[in-house]
From TrEMBL:
The chain crosses the membrane at residues 17-40, 52-74, 185-205, 217-238. Keywords: Cell membrane, Hydrolase, Membrane, Metal-binding, Metalloprotease, Protease, Transmembrane, Transmembrane helix, Zinc. InterPro entries: HtpX_protease, Peptidase_M48. Its cofactor is Zn(2+). Residues 105-317 form the Peptidase M48 domain. Gene3D superfamilies: Metalloproteases ('zincins'), catalytic domain. GO terms for biological process: proteolysis. GO terms for molecular function: peptidase activity. The lineage of its organism: Bacteria, Pseudomonadati, Pseudomonadota, Gammaproteobacteria, Lysobacterales. This is Zn-dependent protease with chaperone function. CDD domains: M48B_Htpx_like (cd07340). The keyword Transferase does not apply. The keyword Transmembrane helix applies.
Length: 633
């Protein structure tokens, strides 16, 4: 499956459905206008001129549009803090970073591994503790303010591979940009429903007492209520259609992402087998139904937010037959059931054919290339490598990044040089920005950071992100300024230093302003030609020891991006940071299919010499984050 092509196709379908949503609002306005004209308008009478109804109809239209718009805006603003607000609205509780519960610990490990493999920050993690159904959702405006929420049923019923498949499905929603659309659909539906609620109130007002014009008010209230509920009905239909198209993409993306079908298919089969299925008990489940992994309850097919279970399973396993569910159910009831029915005993992915503490550079080709699916299953080396990176981190550091202040100190330690000549100046920078107490904490972490495998530096920053988001905004800004000063203390900026500072700045900015997160771009690749040439030049130069090798790598990228064109090579500018940032911002405005070509070109340049360095892998991770793309498979 071509991730970007499928993504573009489904997004195009979703845009058409959103246009239908807008047309539904226009129809609502027209219907209300018609009732207002009938009840309050000027009509022709014998021998009398007809006054214009335009001012009345204009006022009616403005009032309805304002009512829907303001109500929708109110609901969207109530979710302005992103995924956290949506999770808490359904009664979910945050999973503590230092939890000792083995099920919750496994959940955190799986989510952290998927985040490392995808090249996105670790999201906030929530649990719906009272829900026995197997379900989950991801919410937020972008990867930087995302929250992943799972039910207790996921923890009790699913094996590690199945849980990983569900989490990968939810991460696909994050990477596909579905979350912003989901929140806006929630707001628009709420706005339409408010019309019906207002109509009920108006009916009561018009029917109470003998006010003059009460009949007209009553009719307008009835129209608001009827049209509001009809509009809500069709809005739900459109919302369900949008959700079904997005769910199909998320299933396919999760398979490409994990490189195996058994996990997500196994989770879907268990939903079909167990009595609870994916049903939720929470009162406002319909509001988040379009975000969920499975159906929130039993709905008419028209309102189904997901394709039928068997259809989803057969899309993953074409030869699957319904009678196999009965055999699977019997095997799960057997007292000697396999480990797939006892998720607590599952081994972590890092132990499945991967030696803990393995040298990080050997993992790089797999991280970039992923695994191949054979017969529907795979060892998923991408996630094994991510798990090995996670395990290779010293426990002192993984524990420290769970709390805001100690996470801040670890990030400063990551940016501190091991060169003795630079350390006095860098200590002054830290002390001036945060004081002597923080400086002492940073120095205490320096030894652990020095032992950190190079490939684990940015993944450690990803693990620290949930804690860093909790810092006051002013302290976040001070951290970013201090990081810039630390990396420039020697008068130059190498790739490792740049990648850490750029990644944190990008993600913290988006987390602090979730509703301003970038949307899908519309530009085609020729419009960003110079930007891509510059980025490829910097990537090729950063991964090669001499200009001739860099030029060869750059030419590989150019032939993929602009085949047949004669483009002159020019070395990157000495002060490359600012031009690179402008180029990345420009490329972020590309269409998804154009971004695919950008990533392919960069991977071509990186792999041109047959060696993938840590610096190249880290730079690719930062570029993908800047373009809001997953790391290439």
């Amino acid at each position: 499956m071509d991730f970007f092509a499928q993504q573009a196709r489904v997004r195009g379908s979703s845009r058409r459905l959103v246009v239908l949503f807008v047309l539904a609002v226009v129809a609502i306005v027209a219907a209300i206008d018609a009732v207002v004209w009938l009840t309050m308008g000027h009509h022709a009478a014998d021998g009398e001129p007809v006054a214009s109804n335009l001012p009345l109809l204009f006022a009616s239209s403005a009032a309805v549009i304002a009512g829907i718009g303001l109500s929708s805006l109110f609901r969207i603003m109530s979710l302005s803090s992103g995924g956290k607000a949506v999770a808490e609205s359904v009664g979910a509780v945050p999973v503590p970073p230092d939890t000792s519960d083995p099920q919750l610990r496994r959940l955190r490990n799986v989510i952290e591994e998927v985040a490392i493999a995808a090249g996105v920050p670790v999201p906030d993690i929530y649990l719906m503790a009272d829900e026995a159904g197997i379900n989950a959702f991801a919410a937020g405006y972008s990867a930087s303010d995302a929250a992943v929420c799972v039910t207790r049923g996921c923890l009790d019923r699913l094996s590690r591979d199945e849980l990983q498949g569900v989490i990968a499905h939810e991460f696909s929603h994050v990477l596909n940009g579905d979350m912003r659309l989901n929140i806006r659909l929630m707001g628009l539906l709420f706005g339409i429903l408010v019309l019906a609620i207002v109509g009920r109130r108006v009916i009561w007002f018009g029917g109470s007492g003998n006010r003059r014009g009460g009949g007209q008010v009553w009719l307008i209230g009835l129209a608001l209520m009827v049209v509001g509920y009809i509009g809500y009905f069709f809005g739900r239909l459109i919302q369900a259609a949008v959700a079904r198209s997005r769910e199909s993409l998320a299933d396919a993306s999760a398979v490409q992402f994990t490189r195996q079908t058994d996990g997500i298919a196994g989770a879907l089969k268990k939903i079909a087998i167990f009595a609870e299925g994916s049903t939720l008990q929470v009162a406002n489940k319909q509001e988040v139904a379009h975000m969920l992994f499975g159906e929130a309850g039993t709905f008419n097919a028209l309102f189904a937010t997901h394709p039928p279970l068997l259809q989803r399973i057969r899309a993953l396993e074409p030869g699957f037959r319904e009678e196999e569910l009965a055999r699977l159910a019997a095997s799960l009831q057997h007292p000697t059931a396999t480990a797939s029915a006892t998720p607590i005993a599952d081994k972590p992915a890092a132990t499945q054919g991967v030696v803990p503490g393995m040298a990080m550079p050997s993992a790089l080709p797999a991280v970039l290339a992923g695994g191949a699916v054979v017969g529907g299953t795979a060892s998923a080396p991408r996630f094994q490598r991510a798990a090995s990176v996670r395990q290779a981190m010293p426990s002192a550091l993984t524990g420290a990044v769970q709390q805001p202040e100690s996470a801040l100190a670890v990030m400063l330690a990551l940016a501190t040089s091991t060169e003795a000549a630079l350390q006095p100046a860098q200590r002054r920078i830290v002390a001036d920005a945060f004081g002597d107490d923080v400086l002492q904490t940073v120095q205490a972490f320096n030894g652990e950071v020095a032992q950190l495998p190079p490939m684990a530096r940015l993944p450690l920053a990803s693990l620290a992100f949930p804690a860093l988001k909790q810092l006051p905004e002013g302290r976040q800004q001070t951290l970013l300024v201090a990081l810039d000063a630390l990396v420039k203390a020697d008068g130059r900026v190498d790739l490792n230093e740049y990648c850490l500072a750029r990644l944190l700045r990008l993600q913290l900015k988006e987390a602090s302003q979730p509703r301003r997160a970038p949307v899908d771009g519309l530009k085609k690749l020729p419009a960003c030609r110079d930007s891509l040439i510059l980025v490829c030049t910097i990537v090729a130069s950063g991964g090669c020891s001499d200009e001739a090798s860099a030029r060869r790598a750059w030419l590989v990228a150019m032939q993929q991006a602009f085949p047949g064109e004669a483009i002159a090579w020019a070395p990157p500018p000495a002060a490359w940071q600012a031009p690179l940032e402008r180029a990345l911002d420009d490329l972020d405005g590309l269409l998804p299919v154009a971004k695919e070509l950008v990533i392919q070109s960069l991977v071509g340049a990186i792999q041109a010499d047959g060696v993938v360095s840590v610096e190249e892998a880290e730079l690719l991770r930062v570029i993908c984050a800047s373009l809001h793309c997953p790391l290439p498979m």
